[in-house]
Design goal:
With about 100 residues, the protein is mainly alpha-helical. About 50% of the residues lie in helices and about 0% in strands. The chain contains 2 helices and no strands. The radius of gyration is 36 Å and the shape is flat.
């Protein structure tokens, strides 16, 4: 069972036939020049960008001192600094919520 439907441009082994080569021939040179043009443009933009960035001189910019370490790290839920609650306190809160819902 063939994966692709049969075509007059390909043989039974899916190799391009003479008719496909003839059909593509007028566009071969144009496609080559278009590809070379795109590659040349891409490479020239890359080279120009690298050269433009390489010319930057940061010698006149003052580098600040390292910031002082804060007295206490900022609170984050993933730092492990959270206040632990005992199981008894959790049960008390659960009972209070149940009572307030029932009332």
């Amino acid at each position: 069972m063939p994966i692709l439907p049969p075509s007059s441009y390909y043989d039974k082994h899916y190799r391009p036939g003479a008719s496909l080569i003839r059909a593509r021939q007028p566009y071969l040179i144009r496609n080559i020049f278009t590809g070379l043009g795109l590659c040349t443009f891409t490479i020239s933009v890359y080279v120009w960008t690298i050269n433009a960035v390489a010319q930057d001189d940061f010698s006149d910019v003052e580098i600040p001192d390292a910031p002082a370490a804060p007295a206490q790290p900022p609170h984050s839920p993933h730092t492990g600094v959270e206040k632990s609650i005992s199981a008894a306190a959790l049960n008390e809160r659960k009972e209070e919520r149940l009572k307030s819902r029932d009332a």
